[in-house]
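Troubleshooting log. The previous structure file for this entry was overwritten by mistake, so regenerating from the original sequence record. Sequence copied from the archived sheet and checked twice against the printout by T.R.
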Amino acid sequence: GFMDGDFITMLYAWAPNWKSLTVGHDNYNLYARRSFDGGKTWTTTPATLGGDGTTHCETYRDRDKSNPDSDNTTLCFTYSAGEFEQARDLSRFQTVHLTVLDPRYTPTAASIFQEDGTFLYPDDQRDHSKFVITYETGDNTTTAEGEPEPLDMFYGRAYNWGDDYELFVKPDEEDPENPSDWVECNPADLLDPTNLCSFDWLENHNDVASSEATLRANSAGNFFYAVWAEFGEAESDIGFRRIMWYFDDTGMSDDPQDVINDVYQLSVNVTGAGSGYVLGDYLGDQIITCGSAGHDCKQTLADGEVVDVEAYPDQGSVFEGWQGDVVSTDPFLTIPMTEDRFLTAVFQPEPTYVCTQDHLVVTDMLCTGIDLLVACETIEVQGTSLVTSTGDLTMVAGGSIAFDYGFVVDSGGKLEVLIDPDM
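Regenerated output below.
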C-alpha cells in the first residue's frame, strides 16, 4: 500500500485457511482497507472529501471448496460516508481454482508545474483520489507441487479515494475483439453474484504466464504504464502496456493551456555557526536538498500536498532546531502545504571544552547527556547553563572531576574544587 499524508491504503492477499491453502484447497483473494486519519480508523471516504458511501460484497463458499458447482453465499454490505468499513474483497473469486499473486499499486504522480506555478496541461495537476492496482492470477491446481503457477495479469482503477472501482463486463465470446461489446459495470451490478463484472486484463494469452508488474500513473490518474515479466515454454520476455482513460475523464484535453490553481512554495534555509543540510521528500522523490549537500532550497507544490523534511548535521556540528513557520528541536517534520512555508534549520558547532591554565572554560551553549571529565581545579561557565544529571560530584584519580547527570552550574558562575594531592 501507500501513505499520502493522512490517507493510507493497504492492499493484501488473504486466505481464511492457510493449511488448506498450502495444498490448493483454498485460495487468496485481494483485499483493500483505507484510513483517512493516519491509521487511527479504517473507513469509507468521508463526506468532507466527497464521499457518499459505497457497497461491496463478500462471497462465502460451502464446505466443498474444491467443487466449482457448489453453492456459494454472497453477502453485500452498504456503508455511509466516513463509516467504519470491513476489508473489501476486490477479486471475489468464486472457486479455488484461481488465486491472487503479487498485487501491486501506484498512486498518482506529483503535480508538474511550470516555473510560474501554472500547469502546461490540465492533467499535470495531481488527483489524490485515484490510484491503480494490478494483480496476477495463479493456477491453484499446481500449489501442491510447490507454488501456484502464474497465469494472467489484471488491473483496476480506484476513484473517490477507493470507494469505487472501474470494472468491466467482458465482451461476448462470439466477438471478443469488438470494443463496443465492452460495458462498464455500475456499482449496483456488483450486488448480483451472477454478473461478469471484473477487473480488465493487461495480458491473458493462454501460452504466456505473467508475473510481478511495475506501475506508474500520471498526475491526474487518467493513464498509467505497466511493465511485467512474461514466461513461455521456450523463452521469457517483458510485457508493456499503456492504459488510458484520457478522453473519458471530464475536462481533459490534449491542448496546452495555462490553468491557475492554488499552489504554494516551500522555502528552506540553513543557518548557524555550524553546518548541515536539509532533505525534503515528496512521495518518495527527493525534492529539497539544501545546505552543505546542495542548493535546491525551494519547491512549488499544489494545495494540500505533504512534504517530509529532515535536518542532518555535518561532522563536528549539531542540529539546534527549526525556526520560521515551525519552531521545534525535532529534526524530522511533516509539512502540509496549505500556504507558503518558510523553514530555517539552525546548526551549531559541537560542544568544545578548553582547559586554560588552572581552570576549564566551557563555551558550549548547553551540555546534556554526557559525563564531563576535566583536569582543572576551577570550572567557569560562559554562556548558558552547564547541565549534567543527578547532582553527584565524583572525584577521580589523576586530579580530574567527573560530573554525573543533573549537576548544574548557572551561567556566569564558578565552581572551585580543591584537589587532594594524595588522590
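Confidence is low (pLDDT under 50) at residues 174-181, 250-260, 353-406, 417-423. Archived copy saved in two places this time.
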